[in-house]
């Protein structure tokens, strides 16, 4: 399973060639695609701001994804991951930590261009 980060969704919506190529590859391989609830919010904020056809396309796209919810144990795991990063001297945003914990729980690979995910121990990350 792939957990799509908001960077991938935004790049796909903006027609970035690497994101489009990766989306076609995942479709050909019939990969299971999901998005963590915080990533869904990050992606849709821009779509709602633009409105119109952009919003309609974004909502259609996310309707095809499995949305992975955040539970209390996952929130605690995100904090643990953040603590590990802090002990290593690295800083990672809280939303990225939550997305990472959700993806880890579901044994999903995070598809992103955000280099912060590579700083989080024990997380499978793929770029495009």
From TrEMBL:
Cofactor(s) recorded in Swiss-Prot or TrEMBL: Mg(2+)
Keywords of the record, alphabetical order, are: Hydrolase, Magnesium, Metal-binding, Nuclease, Toxin-antitoxin system
Q: CDD domains of this UniProt entry?
A: PIN_VapC4-5_FitB-like
The segment(s) forming the PIN domain are 2-121
Give me the segments passing through the membrane.
none
Question: Which Pfam family is one of those matched by this entry?
Answer: PIN
Note the InterPro entries from the entry. Answer: PIN-like_dom_sf (IPR029060), PIN_dom (IPR002716), Type_II_TA_system_RNase (IPR050556), VapC_family (IPR022907)
GO MF terms here are: hydrolase activity; metal ion binding; RNA nuclease activity
Note the coiled coil stretches, chain numbering: none
Does the keyword Transport belong to this entry? Answer: no
Q: Which family would the database say this protein is a member of?
A: Belongs to the PINc/VapC protein family.
Record's PANTHER family? RIBONUCLEASE VAPC2 (PTHR33653:SF1)
Query: Any idea what this protein is called?
Result: Protein containing PilT protein
